[in-house]
Specification:
- This protein has helices at residues 44-52, 59-77, 83-97, 102-112, 119-144, 172-180, 198-207, 220-225, 251-261, 292-295, 347-350, and strands spanning 2-5, 8-11, 15-18, 23-27, 38-41, 153-156, 186-190, 212-215, 231-234, 238-239, 245-248, 265-268, 296-301, 306-311, 324-327, 334-337, 340-342.
- The protein has 351 residues and is of the alpha/beta class.
- Helix 2 (59-77) runs antiparallel to helix 3 (83-97).
- 44% of the residues are buried.
Length: 351
């Protein structure tokens, strides 16, 4: 993606392996939209923390980061007699950092299945995995753009752009492609509490000069009731064999509302998000995150030029903070993939 860092224009993916320093580098998503900061992870432990603390986020980007992180462990422990043991420890730590998004497991498994290779060859496996995700984003954009018509109002939830998919995006990719080809429409961007990923979507759409408006999550149903939403496109963090999806909390609400108002509801994702070991959404483990994400708001104090947390609740307040929910396949109109726009019944055969 095109970025300006310290006044210099550059082109960077969301996460990459820096060959000069043999480190994993990533764009710090917690600083968007106020600052473009590059974080350097010098070992797999730092990559684990970056994933867990959502410096890198978006299921496919997490998967790429995980593959790179396990590659770091391979280099670190390659001369150890207990190499296999140390790699399995690193594998489990990385896997546990974000348990719901299946791309992470798929990326880690790519490395595990390549342990007979040299560290340099394993690095190529990780880079290929990340590159394939990036390339799928372009295909998803080309395939999905045909759903978009001039004058449409489109709703999206969470962030599914270049930062979430190594580059280009999943649900945002068709919007970018359609806009670049001259289509004109408007996007309503759910704020997406509690992590407020809508700010990243707004930043990315703004960089493409795509017309958009940020709304609180609870506004979406009101807009649907007024006939002001024509299409919903969002992403997925895990897709079960039957087409049930785990996605950012609030997705299920939108699917129910879309069904009631007869609004097309699509999910876009790369093949790495498809889970061949999970039959239905009922088997998916939902990550529960810390209370602080709800209790505090994280933002930029422009007067003091610093980031800070501001508390919204008393210390004794109780919270429940699941990061994802499950949307059943019967509420999903179609699945936008690099293999085409598929029905739930086609996923197993095509993917």
């Amino acid at each position: 993606m095109k970025l300006k860092i310290d006044g210099i224009e550059t082109d960077k993916p969301a996460v990459w392996w820096d060959v000069d320093s043999n480190t994993v580098k990533m764009i710090d998503q917690t600083k968007i939209p106020f600052e473009i900061k590059i974080v350097t992870c010098t070992n797999y432990h730092e990559t684990v923390l970056a994933i867990k603390n959502m410096i890198i986020r978006g299921a496919p980007s997490i998967g790429a980061a995980g593959a790179y992180g396990l590659t770091q462990a391979v280099f670190e422990f390659s001369d150890r007699k207990d190499f296999q043991k140390q790699i399995l420890i690193a594998y489990q730590e990385l896997l546990n950092s974000r348990p719901t998004a299946v791309d992470l497991k798929n990326g880690l498994d790519k490395i595990i299945s390549s342990l007979s290779k040299t560290p340099e060859e394993i690095l190529k496996v990780a880079e290929t995995f990340a590159f394939q995700i990036k390339e799928e984003g372009f295909k998803i954009g080309i395939i999905g753009k045909d759903l978009i018509k001039n004058g449409m109002n489109i709703l999206t939830h969470c962030h599914t752009g270049a930062l979430a998919l190594v580059d280009h995006g999943s649900a945002i990719a068709p919007l970018k492609q359609a806009w670049r080809e001259g289509m004109r429409f408007h996007v309503f961007v759910d704020e997406t509490r509690p992590r407020i990923q809508g700010k990243i979507t707004s930043w990315e759409l703004g960089s493409e000069k795509i017309n958009h408006t940020v709304i609180c999550d609870s506004v979406a149903g009101f807009l649907m009731s007024q006939g002001r939403i024509d299409l919903i496109i969002l992403g997925a963090d895990r897709v079960a064999m039957n087409g049930d999806i785990a996605n950012k909390i609030g997705t299920y609400n939108l699917a129910i509302l879309a069904s009631y108002h007869k609004i097309p509801f699509y999910t876009a994702f790369p093949i790495s998000t498809f889970d061949r070991q999970t039959k239905t959404g009922k088997e998916i483990v939902i990550e529960e995150r810390e209370n602080a994400e709800i209790k505090y708001v994280w933002g930029f104090n422009s007067q003091e030029s610093r980031y800070q947390h501001v508390s919204l609740y008393l210390n004794e307040t109780n919270f429940y903070n699941p990061a994802f929910d499950i949307t059943p396949n019967e509420l999903i109109t179609g699945y936008i993939t690099s293999k085409g726009i598929l029905a739930a019944s086609e996923l197993e055969e095509k993917l």
